[in-house]
Amino acid sequence: MAKIEVVKVDGEDRFEARIDGNVVGTAYYRRHPSGRIFFTHTEVDDNYQGKGVGATLAGGALDIVRTQGDRVVPLCPFMAGFIERNETYQDLVDPELTQRFTQSRGGS
User: Fold this and answer.
1) If we measure between CA atoms, which residue out of 82, 45, 89 comes closest to residue 66?
2) How many CB atoms lie within 10 A of CB 90?
3) 46 vs 67: CA distance, rounded Å
4) What is this structure's pTM?
5) How far apart (Å, rounded) are the C-alpha atoms in residues 91 and 25?
6) What count of other Cβ atoms lies within 10 Å of the Cβ of residue 106?
């Protein structure tokens, strides 16, 4: 498979995974008034499911967040699971806001 490029789409509140310029995955977010990045939903094109696009998208998006000095609240189950499985990204999570918002949404 061709190289997956992860880009932040400024002004659109999303990160995209692209292969040969075509969007094959998207991670949506909202910037909270606290300045935190709230990941809300991640999706991968059906033709690219199970090929590592989601993991590459999540890791790439989190790498960009890190370089910008931001922290995250992973409301999206995929992003939350990715961070849980990849210790190198756990320091990006704002634990207080994550707990508050997942409890208010009925999560654990």
Assistant:
1) 89
2) 11
3) 30
4) 0.90
5) 24
6) 6
Domains and their CATH numbers in the chain: 4-104 (3.40.630.30)
On whether the CB atoms of residues 89 and 62 are closer than 8 A, the answer is yes
Place of tokens 């400024």: 10
pLDDT per position in the chain (108 positions), as tens?
A: 789 999 999 899 999 999 999 999 999 999 988 889 999 999 999 999 999 999 999 999 999 999 999 999 999 999 999 999 999 999 999 888 777 776 655 554
Q: What would the two tokens of residue 7 be?
A: 């880009």
Q: Cα 19–24–30 angle (5° rounding)?
A: 120
